[in-house]
Amino acid sequence: MDKETIIVTGGAGFIGSEVVRQLIQSGECSVVNIDKLTYAGNLKSLASIEDSDDYRFCQIDICDKDQLREEVFRSRPTRIMHLAAESHVDRSIDGPDDFIRTNIIGTYNLLEVSREYFSGLSGEEAELFRFHHVSTDEVYGSLGETGLFTEETPYRPNSPYSASKASSDQLVRAWYKTYGMPALISNCSNNYGPYQYPEKLIPLVIHKALAGDPIPIYGRGENIRDWLYVGDHARALQTIIKNGEPGQVYNVGGKNEMTNLQVVATICGMLDDLRPLHDGESYEDQIEFVTDRPGHDMRYAIDASKIERTLKWSPAETFESGIKKTIEWYLSNQIWCESVTQKYSGKRLGVLA
Ligand code: NAD
Ligand code: DAU
Predict the structure, then answer these.
(1) 1 pLDDT band (50/70/90 cuts)?
(2) Is 78 domain-assigned?
(3) Number of domains in the chain
(4) 192 forms bridges with which residues in the sheet?
(5) Catalytic annotation, pick one of 18, 54, 86, 138
(6) CA separation (Å) from 209 to 203, 212, 271, 299?
(7) Looking at residue 304, what is its pLDDT?
(8) How many angstroms is it from 186 CA to the middle of ligand 1?
(9) Which CATH number characterizes residue 136's domain?
(10) Whose atoms come closest to the Cα of 42: which ligand?
(11) Residue 351: closest CA among 86, 90, 89
């Protein structure tokens, strides 16, 4: 039997490229990567697998329904993993337009094209087909000092980004309920790891620290995020698309709650060891507290017991092991970093005038 074909959208991004690398390295399937290559998409992240006979790249905007339809019918996928999105909260504050377009209209287009394609399948092909929407814990809003997000937590998105992801989740749910699209949704906490665009907290801090620039911490640095290593997330996504049940939602998280200040201090401490400054100096001296993000969610924390119990997934990395790998990767991949930072100077984003 031929290998199955999986379409990954957003496969040139941070998480998508990890998913594509893992799928190709498994040798079990062919992958078609559909990506528009926005500022966040980078084909250099796929250099290790780009020559594989099992891999094909298509530069397509998911808002272009005709091109999307043509590619889906040409590839004849057994499954679709949908990661393409505008993903940065601060950019959504500055300009929500692309977030509404890509995250809502783009997801709608992909659902409609997938429905057309799925309706023509029969037998084993129809039974196997899955549509997996990769989403975020930010749809649940913000937690107080206690409690965890479960799959039953009501949606209360607070940023244009999270509102657009909440909308796309609801579309996916409706396509499952109304049209019987075999769709699944996963909502994951903050990812970190190699190949992350240096607008997000962890790569931004590494970049600013090494450049000798001020390291910006929003507000008092007390906001809490629940960090998950990207390799663990990509494994969870593979598990969900293979063994998850259509119509189900799976929360994915790393049980690694930390304040932003703790995260930044950990990175600075590791850099002090790996790239020491002059005597007595620490990268922590570069920390600067800056104006808070508008609508800044206070705390995210995931209850991942459903995926752990039903699909036997659990994270392999602790924050300490994952952040060490991440920092070492950035230190030895400065060429990748320079190629992406050419498109972004590192200036503060998401402050209202
Ligand atoms: P990213 O910004 O690094 O990558 C997004 C990718 O999507 C890029 O390659 C970009 O070129 C592509 N893209 C954007 N608009 C497109 C369009 N109109 N058509 C086709 N391709 C387009 O994002 P990421 O951090 O890898 O996130 C991937 C997915 O996972 C997103 O859906 C995001 O909401 C979700 N997610 C991210 C995190 C996180 O911590 N980064 C956590 C949970 C969920
Ligand atoms: O929770 C999952 C979400 O995590 C994903 O859906 C998003 O795609 C992803 O971007 C991420 O959103 P956050 O807003 O939590 O990530 P970000 O890296 O932008 O910020 C993490 C925290 O650090 C947040 O509390 C804001 C703060 N921060 C961020 C930057 C960029 C700073 O204090 N200083 C900074 O310079």
Answers:
(1) low
(2) yes
(3) 1
(4) 229
(5) 138
(6) 10, 5, 8, 25
(7) 98
(8) 14
(9) 3.40.50.720
(10) 1
(11) 90
